[in-house]
Structure formats: C-alpha cells, structure tokens
Amino acid sequence: MKPFILLLSVILFTSCYEPQSDCKSFQEGIFQFETLIEGELVKTRFDRRKDIEIETFRGKIDTASIRWVNDCEYVLRLVNPKKMADEKPMHFKILTTDKNSYTFEYNIVGENEKQKGRAFRVDN
User: Domain map of the chain by residue range?
Assistant: First the structure.
C-alpha cells in the first residue's frame, strides 16, 4: 500500500507544477539569440519596444511590427520586406522564463513546423 501512496503523491505534486512564465517582463528590452546555421554559430540581437522590434543579424538591420496576442504570444511582421518569403508573419510563444532569459517556440503563421530557441536579456 505504501508504494501506491508514494506513487500517487509524486503524480499529484508533479502534475501541479507549471513552468514559470513572467512574460510581461520580456515584452520590452534588448535580447540576444544564438543558433547554428550551416555549422556556423550566429547571433541575432533585437531591441523590442512596445509594438516594434529592431533586429540586427549578420550586420543587417530589420524592423518588424509586433502584435501581442496575449502576454506570452506575439506576431512579428517585417515593416519593409525585401523578398516575398519575408512578407509572411512569424508567430512567437514564450514558453518559460527565468531571471534573464526565456525559452520560446516560433513558426511562420499558417505553417505547422515549429522551432525552439532561448533568448537572453543583454540590457541589464
């Protein structure tokens, strides 16, 4: 009987756990994201303010408008897309947060394939 009670206790405690998500504190600020592209570690730096985000990637600067769906989800759309592929908006969802970073998933709106990443605050 004791193993059953122990198992039940573990299930109850772990099912109540929710990852921390203080999304509002990451709606504005300067952040950095690193990823591997064709074997090369590349960094993207972005400055997010209210309804606009300015991104620097490989020396190029792009500006995107932000539409917040809720505290943890937003849609980015490039202000001046240069290619047709850049005209498609991107959906971002903040999954978890900690003091200076957050994990997120993102995809092109209308497509099912999602990518995950982690952004770090650099403006503190």
Answer: 21-121
Rounded Cα gap, residues 76 and 17, in angstroms: 30
Per-residue pLDDT tens digits for 87-119: 999 999 999 999 999 999 999 999 999 988 899
Type of residue at 120: F
What the block records as the tokens of 118 is 């982690």
**In this structure, are residues 104 and 123 in contact, taking their beta carbons and an 8 Å threshold?**
no
Locate 15 and state its tokens.
């099912």
* 38 φ/ψ sector (left φ>0, alpha ψ -120 to 50, else beta): left
Q: Residue range 6-25: average pLDDT?
A: 58
Taking CA atoms, 68 is separated from 25, 37, 44, in Å, by 14, 28, 21
Q: What's the gap between Cα 116 and its chain centre? A: 8
Q: Domain 21-121 is in which class? A: mainly beta
Residue 109: what residue type? V
